[in-house]
Amino acid sequence: MGSAFSFLISSTEPIKPSLGDLPESCVASVLVYMDPPEICKLSMLNRAFMRASSADFVWESKLPLNYASIIQRVQNFPNNLCKRDIYARLCRPNSFDGGTKRVWLDKSTGGVCLSVSSSGLAITGIDDRRYWSRIETDESRFKSVAYLQQIWWFEVDGEVDFPFPVGSYSIFFRLQVGRASRKFGRRICNSEHVHGWDKKPVRFQLSTSDGQQATTQCYLNEPGMWKYHHVGDFVVTGSVTPMKVKYSMTQIDCTHTKGGLCVDSVVICPVEFAERLKQRF
To answer: The F-box domain covers which part of the protein (predicted)?
Structure first.
């Protein structure tokens, strides 16, 4: 009798509310103010958070304002995706311009990053195998690099016409002095053709369609390491019209030859990522 009475009392006690009782619309309104990795973690709390984390307006707030223009440039981008899946797809490297360029979003910030392969650059003498060759390597995002044996007139040019979102961007050339390979599982660097880079600095330049310009120069004197060489910065103030950016690296002093250089790619990214790039090999 006593136990039955106590059961009746306990069964009438009010159930305490939990996070799962929050309306999905309220949860989604909070998720808008969080970073994408935080949203993904919170989506695993319960069903309410999982459903709220799929709301289109949550992920649209993380996408660049002109993401539709970016999608139009990408090859084979799927149709009819929800905003969450569009964000996830754009965070993967997406090819355009015949596969010579790739664009992706930074997973944490949604910042637009772009990479141009050596095949997408105009390289003086690239078709003459006495000077240049294409080398396959797993150390490149594009699986191959342009390798210079020897040349008098060194010039690499490129340009990109792209709908960059509003913001500040940095441009880098990814280069390596010497030719890397593996022997018995160990990475080694062949410096057989390396010469001429200590006599004159390499000049890096950029210009934009709205008149911005930058010039830097440096000696290439660290063999065996992939380095990101800073060309300069530019600012995008409007994303309605695509920004055309031209970039180059030259060492055209014909008093001496130079060689033994791997040209991998050009990277364009938000300026706040510059330090991150410098820490990579």
So the answer is: 16-62
